[in-house]
Amino acid sequence: MLNRATSEELFKRASKVIPGGVNSPVRAFKAVGGNPIFMKSAKGAYMTDVDGNQYLDFINSWGPMILGHASDVVIDAVQKVLADSFSFGAPTRREVDMAELIVSIVPSVEVVRMVNSGTEATMSAVRLARGYTGRDKIIKFEGCYHGHGDSFLIAAGSGAMTLGAPDSPGVTQGVANDTLTVAFNDLLAVEQCVVENKNKVAAIIVEPVVGNMGCVPPAPGFLEGLRIICDKEGIVLIFDEVMTGFRLSLGGAQELYGIRPDLTTMGKIIGGGMPVGAYGGNKEIMQQVAPAGKVYQAGTLSGNPIAMAAGIAMLTHLKNTPSVYQTIEQTSAFISDGILQYIKEKNLPCSVNRVGSMFTLFFTKEKVTDFNTAKTSDLVAFGTFFRSMLEKGIYLAPSQYESLFVSTAITKEQATQVVEAAKTSLVEVFEK
Ligand code: KE4
Q: What are the pLDDT digits (tens) for 295-325?
């Protein structure tokens, strides 16, 4: 076992003054056993913990570090502007530059508003859809996670799943009544839900490629079907691309699948690791947002100039370096195909889903296409696998219900190391 004495000491202290000792539940290792590891620094493909142990990182801050940690691209941009002060509470040039950059990159975005997290983006997009349509209900998909806004903590995925209680206390029945949930990839169920709630549904919000029940791709025709239903029924189609945006392609899942949502929510990569979220889309809808329109949304640090410098550097680099997507696709395919080949050779009760540089090893023989099939995963086996890989210095998402994120910093040698480590760890799971 690696020495983690300092982490343990910090966790004891943290647990006295921070709920569960962490500032976000999924970091708590609840789903995999053991205590969370406290990180000290990171560079490229590696994170180093407070005890000096190094880990090959496949979380990459849950997506943002697509160029690897402490990328010179972002560091240099932030260092250049630090002396100009951190926040003004007044508009700045960089916010205009950032908005123009996003509009030039994301196919459906004509107007965009910066916020400080993915949750703020999704909460705001739903309020906007309700304000624009005058309708109250939203449709979300079981296992999809759109942040911790009350409307979304119904059959939520990600961290909510690790607590085994997707519906959170504190969410009122009134709020829950306005959130309708349907199985992902079940277009007939969506049609039926819309018929049963005729003229009451303001928005359908979807992770176009789900990352938060593990990686689950849309079935052929599913996203197209949502677009048709929304057009027919006057429903706002919201693509939650907080995770997929700028990752599955420069223009996100909407570019990859050629579907034009009405609103898109963004986060993670958009800030290069700084707290940035955004929502944007169709001009007519976005012009309903205050102060242009009446749908109120605000934020003290929205468009923060330091965060904008980081985000502009990140997005500009991605826009000017299309090879990034080829690199992370190749690395991801190499790793997931290598593991899949071993699973087939050994006939192990596992399956793999991958879209671009997002992938998940599920500990179930089932093909995972939705929440119910994801939940057939053997979480004990996953926990054993996670801990075994961690002891080999490979840091995976501490939950079966998460996607892994590959960065350009992972070399072919390291990818080979990961595949070999996974094989050994799978032996530990199934053959001991
Ligand atoms: P944040 O509020 O955490 O910035 O974004 C919420 C959010 C919205 N939409 C999607 C599709 C997301 O994946 C997220 C956040 N993702 C999780 C990881 N699955 C964040 C990690 C955490 O909760 O600590």
A: 999 999 999 999 999 999 999 999 999 999 9
Q: Are 25 and 54 a contacting pair, CB within 8 Å?
A: no
162 lines ligand 1 (CB under 6 A): no
Between vectors from CA 101 to CA 292 and to CA 312, what angle results, nearest 5°? 110
Task: Write the pLDDT tens digit of every residue in 137-193.
Answer: 999 999 999 999 999 998 888 877 655 444 789 998 889 899 999 999 999 999 999
pLDDT value for 154: 85
Calculate mean pLDDT across residues 388-399.
97
**Distance in Å, CA 366 to ligand 1 centroid:** 26
Tell me which of 46, 55, 132, 145 is the catalytic residue. Answer: 145
Task: Return d(Cα 99, Cα 112) in angstroms, integer.
Answer: 6
Q: Residue 366 is encoded by which pair of tokens? A: 């089932």
Q: From the CB of 402, is ligand 1 less than 6 Å away?
A: yes
The response to whether residue 145 sits with its C-beta less than 6 Å from ligand 1 reads yes
Cis peptide before 291 (omega within 30 of 0): yes
Total-model pTM: 0.97
In the β-sheet with 39-43, what is the strand arrangement from edge to edge?
39-43, 46-49, 54-57, 394-395
Pair 190, 237: CB distance under 8 Å: no
Q: Which atom of ligand 1 is nearest to the CA of 117?
A: 4
Is position 231 annotated as part of the catalytic site?
no
> What SS3 state is found at 53?
coil
Task: Look up the CATH number of domain 5-70+322-430.
Answer: 3.90.1150.10
Out of 26, 152, 242, mutate this one to test ligand 1's pocket (max ligand atoms within 8 Å of CB): namely: 242
Distance 118 CA to ligand 1 centre (A): 6
Q: Give 72-320's CATH code, choosing from 3.40.50.300, 3.40.640.10, 2.170.130.10, 1.10.443.10.
A: 3.40.640.10
Domain ranges (residues) in the chain: 5-70+322-430, 72-320
To the query of whether residue 198 is one of the catalytic residues in this protein, the response is: no
Q: Is 111 helix (H, G, I), strand (E, B) or coil?
A: strand
Among 55-59, 90-94, 156-160, the minimum mean pLDDT is found in 156-160
Ligand 1 atom showing the smallest separation from residue 120 Cα: 2
Q: For a ligand 1 pocket test, name from 24, 123, 145 the mutation site with the most ligand atoms within 8 angstroms of its C-beta.
A: 145
